[in-house]
Write a sequence for this structure.
């Protein structure tokens, strides 16, 4: 019993650490994009992520598993790596480059509904009642944010940015659908995905914005994104999931992240948080809560 309580405390601390890190990344994206083009941020962040994931694997004695994969494993990692990090983060950073962080960040949280929709044609799932009701509530929130509260004006403040932010949820959902078939250790698989995608990321950067080393502010921002968003936060969350006996309770902590994120955006980016952002984010979180609460029990 004591050991179980200790594990639950450790799981809670790890999960809170992951949530705190995820809460800062919207601010890090926005500040970094003041000094880097989106593709440059992707390139340097990916370098930092590969190094971070490699260190984590060495520290936990799992690096040998990287070399024991089959040809099929490496081909899967290459395909998944072209989705995430290459396509997903490039689209996401382009969205942040066009939208205020307070708008891009909540829109990205709708990926759970995109996942439910894509699972119908790709996995043969059926939409549950919670998916439908929750999706209607959440996408009402998207509409409020995208129109900045002018819900009857039928005009998006930045339609391209909104399309990119919602498009990133499509890529993220596709990534999770196909990575669910991967039976390797999740950290090992993520390292392989990033490592095999890195040459393509660097090539894309070299052919567009160029690979010149940015100034220290851009480099520091990219390192922060790579180490914490792409690497350490994922490892902390995995650790929490392994230790806890209540996955649902730990998973609910993720609802703290978007609200904490708005605090950091206001404090460090200097954006005045619009009432429409609070209302839209509230609807998105309510939609996610409805989706979870009405999910069929296994």
């Amino acid at each position: 019993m004591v050991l179980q309580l200790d594990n639950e405390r450790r799981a809670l601390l790890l999960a809170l650490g992951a949530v705190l890190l995820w809460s800062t990344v919207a601010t890090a994206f926005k500040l970094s994009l003041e000094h880097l083009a989106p593709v440059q941020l992707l390139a340097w962040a990916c370098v930092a992520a590969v190094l971070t994931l490699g260190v984590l694997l060495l520290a936990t004695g799992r690096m040998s598993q990287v070399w024991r994969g089959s040809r099929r494993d490496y081909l899967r990692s290459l395909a998944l790596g072209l989705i995430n990090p290459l396509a997903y983060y490039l689209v996401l950073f382009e969205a942040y480059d066009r939208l205020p962080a307070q708008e891009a960040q909540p829109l990205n949280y709708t990926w759970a509904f995109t996942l439910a929709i894509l699972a119908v044609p790709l996995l043969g799932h059926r939409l549950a009642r919670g998916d439908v009701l929750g999706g209607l509530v959440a996408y009402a929130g998207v509409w409020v944010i995208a129109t900045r509260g002018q819900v009857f004006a039928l005009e998006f403040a930045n339609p391209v940015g909104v399309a990119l932010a919602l498009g990133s949820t499509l890529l993220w959902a596709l990534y999770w659908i196909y990575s669910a078939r991967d039976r390797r250790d999740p950290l090992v698989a993520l390292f392989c995905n990033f490592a095999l995608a890195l040459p393509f990321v660097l090539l894309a950067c070299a052919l567009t914005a160029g690979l010149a080393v940015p100034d220290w502010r851009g480099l520091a921002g990219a390192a922060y994104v790579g180490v914490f968003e792409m690497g350490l936060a994922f490892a902390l969350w995995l650790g929490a999931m392994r230790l806890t006996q209540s996955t649902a309770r730990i998973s609910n902590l993720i609802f703290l992240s978007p609200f904490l994120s708005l605090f950091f955006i206001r404090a460090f980016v200097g954006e005045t948080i619009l009432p429409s952002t609070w209302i839209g984010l509230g609807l998105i979180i309510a939609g996610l809560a409805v989706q979870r609460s009405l999910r069929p029990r296994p």
